[in-house]
Amino acid sequence: MLSLKVARIENATPRIKRIELVAADGGPLPAFTAGAHIDLELGNGEARSYSLLNDPAEAHRYVIAVLREADGRGGSAWIHDALREGDVLASPPPINHFKLSEEGEHHILIAGGIGITPIASMAARLAALGKTYELRYCARAREEAAFVDELQAAHGDKLKPVFDGGDPARGLDVVTLLGKRPSAGHAYVCGPAGLIRAVREAGRDWPKGTIHYELFKGSEEDIALRKNDQPFDVVLNKSGRKLHVPADLSLLDVLKAEGLKIKTLCKEGVCGTCLVGLVSGKADHRDDVLSDEEREESLQVCVSRAMPGETLVLDL
Predict the structure, then answer these.
(1) What is the pLDDT of residues 4-21, one digit of tens each?
(2) What CATH number has the domain spanning 2-91?
(3) Could you tell me the residue ranges of all domains in the chain?
(4) Span 242-291, pLDDT tens digits
(5) Same fold for the domain at 2-91 and the one at 106-217?
(6) What separation, in Å, do the N-terminal and C-terminal C-alpha atoms of the chain show?
(7) For the chain, which has fewer Cβ within 10 Å, the N-terminal or C-terminal residue?
(8) pTM for the complete prediction?
C-alpha cells in the first residue's frame, strides 16, 4: 500500500475539487500509464476509485478530480467536506483497465463531465508521443468544464469543447464524428452512460478493440442485462467445494456468504477490483473492464454469471 499525502486541494469548478497527492515520505511514486486509476481508502471507511488526470511522465505526484455527487454513497461528500491538505491516505499502486493503444495512428478522445480525468492524461501522453489526436469535451456550460482553459493551452485547436446547455439536441454528433474510421484509428470515451452508449453504437462497425470506454458509474441497462437470470453452480478449485448461486443472488453474494474474502469497490462491473481466476466453464461476462483475452481466464464476480447449463470452476 502507498501512503499518499494531500499536497494541494483546489476548486476546479464549484462542484469539482482537484487534489494533488504525493508520497508521504517525499520519494518518487510508482509509475502509471495514461488511463490509470488509484483506489483510495478514505477516512470515512469507504474506498473509491479515481482516475489520474496528470501527465504520466510525472513521477512525483498523482492528480485526481472529485465531483460532489448528490446521490453518491458518501465518498465524494467526505472528500469535499472533510479532506484537508496534509492528510495521508492509503492506496494500492495505480491500476489501468482503460489503456491507451499507443500503436494507433489517430486517436479520438471523448469526455463527458468528470470523465475528462483519464482523457486528459491520455491527451498529455499522445502529445508527448507526437501522435495525431482530437479531444472533444462535453459539458453543460464552460464554467462546469473542469480544466478547460489549461487543456486549451496545452492542446490548442485539437480541443473542441461542446457545451449543450442541457439540451441533448445540441450535444456532440458522435454519429458524424465516428462515421468513418481514420486509418489505424482508436476512439476513447469516458463520462455519463448515455454518452458511452452513443459512442459504442456510432462505432459499431469499427474493428473489435478500437472503441475504448470507461464508466465511472454504471446502470442496469448499460452494464449487465440481468433479466431472467438463471441459477447455476460453481466449484472452488482449491478446495473442491461446490456452491449453488440462486437466480436472485450474485456470485459475489454467495462467495462472501461462504466466508471468502473478495475485495470489492463498485459492485457494478466497472472498477475491476473483484477479479477471480476462471479455470473452466463458460461465463456470461457482464463487466466493462476485461478484454476478450482476459475473459478467457478470469471474471468479475460482482456481475458475471454462468452461461445456461454451465458450471464454473473458479481459482479459489
Answers:
(1) 999 999 999 999 999 999
(2) 2.40.30.10
(3) 2-91, 106-217, 232-314
(4) 999 998 899 999 999 999 999 888 777 777 889 999 999 999 888 767 87
(5) no
(6) 23
(7) N
(8) 0.70
Residue with cell 459499431: 204
SS (H, E, C) the chain: CEEEEEEEEEEEECCEEEEEEEECCCCCCCCCCCCCEEEEECCCCCEEEEECCCCCCCCCCEEEEEECCCCCCCHHHHHHHHCCCCCEEEECCCECCCCCCCCCCEEEEEEEHHHHHHHHHHHHHHHHHCCEEEEEEEECCHHHCCCHHHHHHHHHHHEEEEECCCCHHHCCCHHHHCCCCCCCEEEEEEECHHHHHHHHHHCCCCCCCCEEEEECCCCHHHHCCCCCCCCEEEEECCCCCEEEECCCCCHHHHHHHCCCCCCCCCCCCCCCCCEEEEEECCEECCCCCCCHHHHCCEEECCCCEECCCCEEEECC
Q: Cell 463458460 identifies what position?
A: 282
Provide the CATH number for the domain formed by 232-314 in this structure.
3.10.20.30
